[in-house]
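Hi there. Long-time user, first ticket. I'm pasting a complex I've been working with (about 274 residues overall). I'd like to know whether the download I got is complete or cut off, because the file seemed smaller than I expected. Thanks.
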Amino acid sequence: MSQGYLVDLALVLSAFLFAIGVAGVLLRRNAIIVFMCVELMLNAVNLSFVAFSRMHGIDGQIVVLFVISVAAAEAAVGLALILAIFRHYESVDLELFRRLRW
Amino acid sequence: MIEFFFFLFAAMAVLSAIFMVTQVNPVASVLYLVVTFFSLSGLFVILDAHFIAAVQVMVYAGAIMVLFLFVIMLLNLGSTELSDIRQGIGRVLAGSVSVALVAVFARLFMAGGDVDGLGGPSALDPLLESSGAVAAVAEPLFTRYLVAFEITSILLVVAIVGSVVLARRREP
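Hi, the file is complete. Here it is re-exported in full:
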C-alpha cells in the first residue's frame, strides 16, 4: 500500500472529529452526553496517533493502547461520579450542579 | 478501492458524530457514537493498525459504550422529550469555538505541509511483513514500554476501587 496521502486526510478528519467533540461539550447540558463527547475527542486524537505511526514507526500505536486503557478507567470513574450526583440531585443537568460555582 | 473505503468510513464517522451531538435522546446518541467508533476502527485498518482496530471494537464499541448505555437505562434517562441543547449564547459560543479550532488546526496543517514522510510510503510495511500485525505491537509493548504497561494495571485497579467506592449507596 502506498496511498501515503491518506495520512494527510486522516489528520484532517481527526481535526474535524475533535472540533465536533468540543462543540458537543459546550452545547449539551446532559452530563452523560458531555462525557461521550470527551470520548469522541480522545478517539480523534487516537486517529492522529495512528496516522503518525504510519509515518514514524509503531510507537504511536502503543500510545493508542495506553490512551484506550486510560479512557476505560476514566469512563468507569466518571460514570460512578454521575451515578452518585444523580442520587443527590435526581438529574444529570449540568446547570443544576452549581455548588462549587461562584 | 482503498480511497473509496477511506472516504466512506470518514463520512460515516463525521456524520454520526454530528448526529451524536444533535440528538435529544441519549440512547440514540450512544448508538450514533458506536457507529463513529466502528468507522474509526475501519480507518485504523486502512492505516495499517490492525490490532488497534480490533481493540477499538472490543473495548470502545463493546465495553465502554455498553457501560454508557447501562448507566442511561439505570437512571431512566432514555425517554426525555425535553431538549438539553443550550440556546442563544451557548450555541454561538460552541459554534465559534469549534470553527476557530478547525481554523487553528488548518493553519498548523498548512505550516507543517513539508514535514518529512507526510504523504510518503508507509513506515510500517516492512515491520508488518516480517512479524505480523499483533507481534509488531506486542514486541515494543512488553520490552521498551513494560514499565508503563505495568503502571497501567495499577491505574485500572485504582479505577475499579474508586468507582466501587463512589457508586456505593451510603447507609444513613
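A couple of notes from our side: The CA atoms of residues 30 and 73 of chain A lie 21 Å apart. The radius of gyration of chain A is 17 Å.
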